[in-house]
Amino acid sequence: MMITGLALLSSPASSKTRLCESENVTVSFQLEEHAEMVCKGVRKAKVLFENCGMPSLSTPLRIDVVEDMIGDCLGQYHCGGNLIEIISPAVMQGRGEPDGVFAHLSSGKYFQSVLIHELAHAATDGMPCPFDFCHVGPEYVAYSMQVMSLSREEQMLFEQSIDMDNLISVEHLHPLVLFMAPDVFTQRVWAHLKQREAPCEFLGQLINGEVIIDFETVEPK
Questions:
Q1: Which domain of life is it from (predicted)?
Q2: Where in the chain is the domain with CATH 1.10.390.10?
Q3: Which of 8, 28, 54, 192 could be bridged to 168 by S-S, CB 3.0 to 4.6 A?
C-alpha cells in the first residue's frame, strides 16, 4: 500500500534502531529477529530490482516494524517521506485471509513479500501520471515485485487459483478491482505480466511513463 502525504506515527519508547549493513536503510524494531528479517528483505529486493531493471533504493529509507496500523493495512509507504511502516509478522499473519492468495506462505515469507511490495513503492516514488491520481500503475509494479519475490514453487501455488491462460486486458485492471478485491487484482496483475513477451521491460515502460494503464476518474459532484 502506498499513501500520499506524511503522517509519522511515533515509535514505541522501547524500540531500537539499526542500520542494515551495506544498505542505506534504518530499521526501527522491538525484536531483533524483525530487524534481521527486514534487512534480509532489503537485500533480496535490491537483487530482485537489479535483475528486473527496476530503479534502485538510492534514497535513505527508514522502516518501522509496528504492532498496529490504521485500518486493515499490512504495510504503508509514505510518499516523499522515505518511510515504510510494516506490521510485525505475527500480527500480519493474523490479519491475513485464510483463503487469501498468499495464505500458503509462512509468516516470515508473507512478511518479506509485503516488505518488498512497499520497497517497490519506495523505489518508484514519483512515477509519471497524466491524471490527478494514478493507483493502478504503481500497484501493478508493487504486486508484480511481491509475487516475483517468491520462489518458483510458491509462485506455482499462487497460480493454482488463476487461469493463467485466460487473456487479461488493461480493462480487467480497473481501480475498482484494486480497491474492492485486491486479491483478484493481484491475480490479474500476475497473469497479465506473465502474458507479456518481456515482463521486466513492460514494468520499465510503466515506471518510465511510456505505458499508462490507469484510468481517468471523475469525482462525483
A1: Bacteria
A2: 2-6+16-123
A3: 192
